[in-house]
Amino acid sequence: MIFDYETLKVIWWLFIGALLIGFAVTDGFDMGVGALLPFLGRTDEERRVIINSIGATWEGNQVWFITAGGATFAAWPLVYATAFSGFYWALLLVLFALFFRPVGFDYRSKVDDPRWRNAWDWGLFVGGAVPALVFGVAFGNLLLGVPFRFDDTMQVFYAGSFWQLLNPFGLLAGVVSLSMLVMHGAVYLQLRSEDEINARAGTAVMISAIVMMAAFALAGVWLATGIDGYRIVSMPAADTAFTPLAKIVEKAPGAWLANYRSHSWMMAAPALGFLGAAFAIVLSRAGRALSAFFASSLSVTGVILTAGFTLFPFIMPSSSSPASSLTVWDAVSSHHTLQVMFWVVVVFLPIVLAYTSWVYRVLRGKITVETIRKNQHTAY
Amino acid sequence: MLPDLALVDVSRLQFAVTALYHFLFVPLTLGLSWILVIMESVYVMTGREVYKDMTQFWGKLFGINFAMGVATGITLEFQFGTNWAYYSHYVGDIFGVPLAIEGLMAFFLESTFVGLFFFGWERLSKVQHLAVTLLVALGSSLSALWILIANAWMQHPVGAEFNYETMRMELTSVADLIFNTVAQSKFVHTVAAGYVTASMFVLGISAWYLLKGRDVPFAIRSFAVAAGFGLASACSVIVLGDESGYTVGEVQRVKLAAIEAEWETQKPPAAFTAFGIPNEAGQRTDYAIKIPWLLGLIATRSTDQAVAGIGELKEEAEARIRNGMVAYAALQKLKSGDQSAAAKAAFEHARKDLGYGLLLKKYTPSVVDATPEQIKRAAADTIPRVAPLFWSFRVMVALGFLFLFIFAASFYFLAVRNLAPQRWLLKLAFWSIPLPWVAAELGWLVAEYGRQPWTISGVLPTFLSVSNVPASSVYLSLAAFVAFYTLLLVVEMYLMLKYIRLGPGSLHTGRYDLETGSVAGREVAP
Q1: Each residue of B221-245: pLDDT tens digit?
Q2: How far apart are CA B404 and CA A329, in angstroms?
Q3: In the structure, what pLDDT confidence band is assigned to residue B523 with cuts at 50, 70 and 90?
Q4: Which of A 94-113 lie inside 8 A of B, CB atoms?
Q5: In whole angstroms, how far apart are CA A288 and each of A26, A27, A199, A284, A285?
Q6: A323 touches B: beta carbon within 8 Å
Q7: 3-state secondary structure of B416
Q8: Fewer Cβ close by (within 10 Å): the C or N end of chain B?
Q9: Cβ-Cβ contacts under 8 Å, B166 against chain A
Q10: How far is B214 from chain A (nearest CA, A)?
Q11: pTM (2 decimals)?
């Protein structure tokens, strides 16, 4: 299959979206479980149950994030350059939070001291909650537009600060993503645990799903009524190579709703976000944890797609120099690279999915306090 | 607008610190994973429990190290974007490709199966579990392959050209990128160095148990696996050492001249300077002890090809800088809207030297008005400082031969069943544990410090590659990295030492010394 440049540009928007959704659906529940750990586990053994419900598989899940980063580098180098350097402190905050996970999982139970273990438990909490929050804040700010511009050699200059990211809408988006991943983590924990932890996880599902739906609805209303979107006024042909500066962009009220007006099927995405969460509550209460997990996964998918559909074709709009805005048409790699990487994804992603499912099948089943006692020296 | 030089220096320092730190954990992961495969294979073939215990005990140490490798590895991926934004834009079209493939093809494999390695013992058949261990090892070495393909492209950028419409380098041949000769020699050299590191780690710790007379059957078998694997790996590191990669590409040739303190081109075959004191000011090597023919033979595999000296390379660079000014002027013309065939042809003609033109931006932002004095300075910039490379390389090579000796002696005394009396060898093996790390870090220094002043050899100067973030931010993040990494290292070392001291008794199988609290044999602290 040889695709034309324009088609590949759209395919790569789908691929990056798929990698982000893959990340949120898999590592998302690891982060949610991490965020819940100090609250749902009251004794050391209970905390070990929670940790071991994700301990054997979280590492592979995190690779969705690494791969999404690598794929962004390869397919959208300007996005990689602009977002990572512009959101410098936000990214470093995520990075330092993520440090706690690999070492936290492996080191926590290797020393039998309550202070040591408690410290790592809070480390795992930070490693789950902080990235979940910051990713949402970052997406919220993308919808607002961020202040950056390019010079004629494509050096990027970012004019904002870390504190400016923490505006009310950005924080609201952070609440959406944090509560969404907590819901997802709680559903997963319910699937893998029994008795008290299972019951506490069920409560967490309900609370977090309700918070998520409320925050998601509020963000939607805010976006529709109070936040100006961006639209492309003119640009070179989509199947050619050009830099962001070659187009004209304007800020316009209601522009973020334009895609939903012209393609009403896109409304399915926010609907999925709400319905998935609602079903997660219902199924979780009915004790059908696996179905609840699928519902929650659909909700996560719907919320991320909503952000993507709203922005499309924008990836990173610039508030200070609208022409510098990064879109799927001009932030991309060359035709050749997109084509090569298309094949890489088509070949390797199914292989990854296949062996990941096999590993989950092998490691399936409930983790209980008895499991921990039996594997005192090998369990995390 | 140009980034200020303090920002460039602190960004470089941060990258060096975080990369060198990450590289404390990578070599052990690379090698130990294969040592686990060997041990477990013996277990599957013979059914003897001690080999399962070996796999599990060394696997525990593998896990402690692996966690640090994962934690510090993400930093490097983030950092291209956070601190090297112009680099990311300028070469992401090519450089991002191996990084993304690494994630999809290698890191997923390694990370998905590593959990099953630890937690799958009771859920998998023996052969299935061995396959899992094998996939972890394969994943980690494949990961190194793709990272080194990316790195080799920085050293010797093939299969790409500059596109003036997008103002960046773009991929023209993915085959050239993957089959880069520098990538091949780098890959073999780097993974073999990792295998040596892990072998020395297992050998030294096993030697310590032997010296203390504890867990002897366990220790002697571990020692044997490490001696065999280490011997093969040390031979690969030396024989397939990546000096062969230094004959291709301008900057690799510069690096070779600096490593060898080859100030002027010698009449072939060139002599090798075994020892000497490089004198930067006098552009000569004092007290040099030379071995005739050797350099020519190693570097060119011939007796009639010359190894270019620093003087000659500097003159070449000056000519390319002048041509780079022509390229830059032609690019300006194209960008100002003159899309005529003549303008395109003019740029096409000089395009390959555009990077050399960019070197002048350090002295004059508009490049085309550079004075002969500025051109001379830019040409001098293309030669990295000789002494650090000269010494790093020699210490690394000397260590390589020491490792070869240790593994060969260990292998010999095992083969003649006379190891126990060789306490000197056991002590030497124990005290040599840190040395492969020294060699590996020096190897990194030779490869990356020797690449300066470029991030992409001949294409993009380092000082142009940085992100436009405030230097104060980078100072602060560097301080945060140093503080956090130091803390993590203390924790990691504490756990490593705890489990090394506990030994296989930490598995609680009831078969080992310290579980019962008694240490068989005599106590001799090495």
Answers
A1: 999 999 999 999 999 888 776 555 5
A2: 55
A3: very low
A4: 95-96, 98-99, 101-103, 105-107, 110-111
A5: 19, 22, 13, 6, 7
A6: no
A7: coil
A8: N
A9: 241-243, 334
A10: 21
A11: 0.94
